[in-house]
Design brief:
The radius of gyration is 18 Å and the shape is globular. Helix 2 crosses helix 5 (75-87). It has a single domain, classed as Rossmann fold. Helices cover 42% and strands 21% of the residues. The protein is α/β, with parallel strands linked by helices and 243 residues long. The protein contains ten helices and seven strands. The protein has a seven-stranded mixed sheet, sandwiched between helices. One of its GO terms (molecular function) is S-adenosylmethionine-dependent methyltransferase activity. Keywords: Methyltransferase, Transferase. Residues 50-145 form the Methyltransferase type domain. This is Type 11 methyltransferase.
Length: 243
């Protein structure tokens, strides 16, 4: 069992069903923003998979027009998410598997997405992941990926403070790579970057809630500097054809 998986299992084991249901009812700003981006395609596409779903909250709040599949290598995350989906009467398919080698036939889905996943892998691994995402994606399908924006000063400083100075205090997730648009990884897989958007500024400032004076300084500076927001979202198409 690799170190990252051990870290994620440790986080998941501390969660209760009630915690996830509460998050479903009161999702983070970035989850709502990502939901809105994905729901724009709910009239066009049907079969969607969240790869590396963790608790699966983003999938659960997506439009029920989608046929949803949730995949994670962490069996505790899948068990927890399934329990929540059952309580909410959500029709979802759950799979425990490695995202580098998924148990699906080629061209099984219209949309492959995740958030807070890709930044934990280096460039070579990201290239491999995009290849596997593309394999299970139908022609003209979409890969939608969200990751923290390390080019936003408030986020970068919060990350460095918690991970490097405070040694992970109040920031339990594994280390992150600084990513802009994955241009090289996308080109190597013959994919097309359709758009790159940055969302969720309020969540960005919320990262400083335990250091409120710093939070207020950033909010004041934002009026003059206009910091970039928290979540970078890439919408990647499998080929050049337009619907």
């Amino acid at each position: 069992m690799n170190k990252q998986l051990i870290e994620w299992i440790k986080i998941t084991k501390d969660l209760k069903i009630e915690d996830v249901i509460n998050l479903y009812k009161n999702p983070h700003e970035f989850q709502v923003d990502l939901k809105n981006i994905i729901n724009e395609y709910s009239e066009i596409y049907r079969d969607i998979i969240e790869v590396g779903c963790d608790t699966g909250v983003t999938s659960l709040i997506l439009s029920d027009k989608f046929n949803k599949t949730l995949l994670d290598i962490n069996p505790y995350a899948i068990e927890l998410s399934k329990s929540v989906a059952d309580k909410l009467n959500k029709k979802v398919t759950f799979v425990v598997a490695d995202m580098f080698n998924m148990p699906f036939e080629d061209k099984s889905f219209d949309i492959v997405f995740n958030s807070g996943v890709i930044e934990h892998f280096d460039a070579d691994q990201r290239t491999m992941l995009l290849a596997e995402y593309s394999r299970i994606l139908r022609d003209n399908g979409l890969i939608i990926i969200g990751f923290p924006n390390h080019y936003s000063l408030p986020y970068r400083l919060a990350y460095v403070l918690h991970k490097k100075v405070l040694l992970g205090y109040n920031w339990p997730s594994p280390n992150e790579f600084k990513i802009f648009d994955m241009k090289n990884e996308i080109v190597k897989n013959n994919l097309i970057l359709e758009k790159r958007v940055i969302v969720s500024k309020n969540y960005l400032f919320g990262l400083w809630n335990k250091f409120k004076p710093v939070k207020y300084i950033f909010k004041i500076l934002d009026k003059f500097i206009n910091f970039q927001s928290y979540l970078t979202v890439l919408v990647i198409r499998k080929n050049k054809e337009k619907i």
